[in-house]
Automatic annotation (TrEMBL):
Residues 1-27 form the signal peptide. This is Peptidoglycan binding-like domain-containing protein. It comes from bacterium (Candidatus Gribaldobacteria) CG_4_10_14_0_2_um_filter_41_16. Keywords: Coiled coil, Signal. The lineage of its organism: Bacteria, Candidatus Gribaldobacteria. Residues 498-564 form the Peptidoglycan binding-like domain. InterPro entries: Peptidoglycan-bd-like, PGBD-like_sf, PGBDSf.
Amino acid sequence: MFSMSRKFLLAGVLLAALTAPLCFVMADSLGQSHIFFVDKSFDEQGRGQVTASLKIVANNGYFYVEDSWYNNLTTEQKTAVDYDLQKLANEFDNNIYPRITAIYGSEWKPGIDNDNKITILLHDIKKGAAGYFRTQDEAPLIQAADSNEREMVFLNTNGLASNSIKSYLAHEFSHLITYNQKDRLRGVTEDVWLNEARADYTPTILGYNDIYQGSYLEQRVRNFINNSRDPMMEWLNTEGDYGALDIFTYYLVEKYGVAILAESLKTNLVGVDSLNSFLRKYGYSKTFSQIFSDWTIAIYLNDCSLGADYCFTKPELAVLKVAPFLILAPSASLTKLGLVYQEKPWAGYWYRIMGGQGKLDLKLAIEAGVALKVSFVLCSQTGACRVDALPLDVNNQAEIIFDNFSRDYASLTLIPVILWPLTPPEDFSPVHNLSINLQNFSSGDEVARVEQLQKQLNELLQKIAQVKALLENLSNQQALKITCQTSFDRSMALGDKGGNVKCLQTFLAGQGSDIYPAGLVSGFYGSLTQQAVVRFQAKYASEILTPLGLTAPTGRVGLATLAKIKSLSLLK
């Protein structure tokens, strides 16, 4: 199980939520039943609401459990659940709440519900998800029709017996804090990857990873081993996203202290800018980009003898080394080898070159304008290694010539990193083609023969790529058509993903370039989609905004906006 966090970043909701409600709200009482809105995409049965009863009133939280799930348990199972829930409540009061708020700051208190306690709802969530957080619960119902109007997080009932449940609660609670520190107090929204980095580091702050075996950290190390090349800023809410992010976060905190996470949370900057601000403030010479590049070297070498930047000191991570791609340099019988690798920004890639005969010429290139840094590790036959950087010309090309590579060296490992853009993508990260060409100097006839074969291979690969793209486009169009015909009935906001968002983007694109000039149908509710919704709401303000007493567009698709969309389209 792993923790997932939904980001419903409500531009229109934020202003209304900045002040606490004026009404007095009675505190929840033990045993009371309440109907809560939940996320359909996470709920095991796809429900939008569940009924739950208050099982524990802790000093800092109300612990609710879904009734239908709890009532189906045996007497013995209920006893075990009650015990585990009380243990979790005690841990929240005595450890999680005081220690995390001391470092990251407080959640919104007394908050939209005018209550100092947060609400923790345990309901039947899909396997593979440990919990989530919804920012629309911080908004009034007039702005978010499915708001619970509480400071609230959600956990999976099926994870209650796990020792990791306390880590999951700490993770989701940190998202609640981030919403208050960034969105509400400073009017900015944190980049998802950094929001998740802080949240996933909370178990370490709380000491839950001190014993490595069976720990939260061990889960994340396994995630990293299975997907070490995951782009850190491309957040798809999958288990693989957490591996590389967590290992990098440990590296960042090991070198610069937990203060880099805490202080960057309490500024009006977000993402890379907030981290660079911290580094400048305390006189560090390196930028975030340089630190990330150093991390890609450290996770490959993990050798402190080559420099403190190239290793971990935590024992469990000091033995972790990524497995590189292996490239066998051409021999005299194959004089030239051309390879093309697809790379994404903010991801680690490692290419170890070995073998070859005689004089070896290595050429590397990527599209001009891409912010590429290429580090390399050159190891001799005796095992001694050195770290250096490969200089690139103005065209993003580089070349190294070895007089006798196999005689003088055991291996050369290239570690290229694309350190751009500094902000996360709205959807999938762009893909760039990195070419690596290796050549031995042999007879002209052999060189010509290899070049001809390479040309034929490249032509074939281009044709395959064209056919693949055509098939994928046809499949996506058919899937989108079916989805939009079946359901289009939920509120949407910045940060949402899925078929409903694609249907929305398809509709907006059909409204013309004055509404949605980008015309992007990606399934991700990014800033371009939000701006299109703002234009649409402004165009039909009398039907969407005026009935709600609003004077400015919100950029969020609520009930009034949905009603107008349905009146203009076939998305019923």
